[in-house]
TrEMBL record:
Protein's recorded name: MFS transporter
Keywords from the named record: Membrane, Transmembrane, Transmembrane helix
Spans traversing the lipid bilayer: 24-44, 64-85, 97-119, 125-143, 150-170, 182-203, 215-233, 239-260, 281-305, 311-333, 345-364, 370-390, 411-429, 441-463
Superkingdom field: Bacteria
Domain Major facilitator superfamily (MFS) profile: residue ranges: 27-468
A Pfam family hit: MFS_1
Keyword hit for Iron: no
Region Disordered, residue ranges: 466-485
Topology of the protein relative to the lipid bilayer: Multi-pass membrane protein
PANTHER family: EXPORT PROTEIN, MAJOR FACILITATOR SUPERFAMILY MULTIDRUG TRANSPORTER MFSC
Cleaved signal peptide residues: none
Positions with biased composition (Polar residues): 470-485
Species of the source: Jatrophihabitans cynanchi
Length: 485
């Protein structure tokens, strides 16, 4: 490919720069709202798991799946959702994602036992995948200048941080009012409203030459990810024959996916993308974000409640020192000098998270506020990291495959989060007091997560050390380290 190809933006394929730019702001607002709601959906149960577990009579295994079901569905279908968005309409997939979250949330609100609730969370995860995968592609198709692209990455990263921050706070507040089901009713209403607005306001876009759906590839990848995530989730209680079987099946399905994609004329994921150090570095950074950031962050609320004696709302507000700082830092990340953007931004963010996590080691037992400086440092670094991941996700793929780039990057992130949560739970509980983490378990979990973030930072730096903040796609076209259209 000797030149960049413009995505087709409907209904006026030949619209001018001014008109396309005028449609960027409302589309970005809708994308930010959708990403925010998807992350609220993902993190909401962190704030009131004990209450939900009591209401549904969920045992230890049921509680594990209440927390993990959405991430399983998210990771399993993200890449497929990205391919569908690029080839069949990003707005269409975005609207469908909101509709699915509404349906899953309604099922959760009405559930009276654990199984229907988990089923609803799975549907929410599929819907969230549609939103997350299509969102960056929707706005990347309208961006025309470096300033546009910097704004997009900052707003998208802030919406991720904002959603992470708001989810536990909302559920914690409703928990105080004994209205935990109200969270899911609000989600259903919010996503239905957003779907209606998006259908009317957001600009539709598709790749200039849409391709057929890669059903064999989607099936093999979905099976591999589901089995891997099931093995990780069930493996938190130890290695059993079922866990080993699921893990072996995941490896076999992953191998099948590689074989299928190498033979397809129009694969869902072009494997030659991994020859590009920028793409591989961004994918590794996303995986490390899941392991070293999301893993311990997902565990934090439970630790604050069970070991520090905080209420659901109090734990969520303490975690806000991390997630709130992340939101602000993502918005300001566009002010970073060019020399610190691109892969260096990812390395800087990962290293900063590690510093913040290590700063919390040994802070408790003691006043709760001793955790705040470490949480804030990790939050600022997370915001820089989120903004950089959003930028690199679409900068390292051909522009007509922007949603696939987002899907691949976020698949790595949520697969990493499952790995991270599993490792944190195992380390924390086995070095803590029985099935509870204790302060020693918490400290070991922090050290593990910090080491994972630091190792990832080193790997990303090594992969991209010969590159500057620009990126070369596998076909040899130089593109900037920001979304191109």
């Amino acid at each position: 490919m000797n030149r960049l190809t413009l995505d087709r933006v409907e209904p006026t394929p030949a619209e001018g720069v001014g008109e396309r730019s005028s449609r960027l702001a409302p589309t970005l607002a809708i994308v930010a709202a959708g990403t925010f709601l998807a992350l609220v959906t993902y993190t909401g149960p962190l704030g009131n798991l004990p209450t939900v577990a009591r209401a549904l009579a969920a045992g230890a295994n049921g509680q594990t799946w209440i927390l993990s079901s959405t991430s399983v569905a998210l990771a399993a279908v993200l890449l497929t959702a990205g391919a569908l968005a690029d080839d069949h309409g990003r707005r269409r997939v975005f609207v469908a994602g909101n509709a699915l979250i509404a349906a899953g949330s309604l099922a959760c609100a009405l559930a009276t036992s654990t199984a229907p609730f988990i089923l609803g969370r799975l549907v929410e995860g599929v819907g969230s995948a549609g939103i997350v995968a299509s969102s960056l592609g929707l706005v990347a198709a309208l961006a025309r200048t470096p300033a546009d692209r910097a704004m997009i990455s900052g707003v998208w990263g802030a919406s991720v941080g904002g959603g992470i921050a708001a989810g536990p706070v909302i559920t914690g507040f409703l928990d105080e009012l004994h209205l935990w089901r109200g969270f899911y009713a609000l989600l259903a209403l919010g996503t239905v409203a957003l779907a209606l607005v998006a259908q009317r306001v957001a600009a539709e876009s598709v790749a200039p030459t849409p391709r057929p759906v890669d059903l064999p590839g989607a099936g093999a990848l979905g099976l591999a990810l589901v089995l891997a995530l099931v093995a990780l989730t069930e493996g938190r209680d130890g290695l059993t024959p079922w866990v080993a079987t699921a893990g072996g099946g995941a490896l076999a399905a992953a191998a099948l996916f590689v074989v299928v994609e190498r033979r397809r004329r129009a694969p869902m994921l072009e494997l030659h993308l991994f020859r590009d150090r920028q793409f591989t570095g961004a994918t590794v950074a996303a995986l490390g974000t899941g392991i070293g950031v999301i893993g311990v962050m997902s565990f934090s609320c439970n630790f604050f409640i069970t070991e520090l004696g905080l209420s659901s709302l109090g734990a969520a507000l303490l975690l806000l020192a991390w997630s709130g700082a992340s939101t602000g830092a993502a918005l300001l990340a566009r002010c970073l000098p060019p020399a610190l953007q691109g892969p260096r931004q990812l390395t800087l963010g990962l290293a900063g998270v590690a510093v913040g996590e290590l700063a919390m080691v040994g802070a408790v037992p003691g006043p709760v506020w001793h955790l705040v400086p470490g949480l804030a440092v990790a939050g600022v670094a997370s915001g820089v990291l989120n903004a950089g991941l959003g930028r690199q996700a679409v900068a390292t793929v051909p522009p007509e495959r922007a949603s696939v780039g987002s899907g691949a990057n976020n698949t790595a992130r949520y697969l990493g989060s499952s790995i991270g949560v599993t490792l944190v739970v195992i380390v924390a509980t086995r070095t803590g007091a029985g099935s509870r983490p204790g302060f020693a378990g918490w400290n070991h979990a922090l050290i593990l997560s910090a080491c994972a973030a630091l190792v990832t930072a080193v790997v990303v730096a090594a992969l991209t050390r010969r590159e500057n903040s620009s990126s070369r796609n596998p076909r040899g076209t130089r593109i900037t380290a920001t979304p191109r259209t």
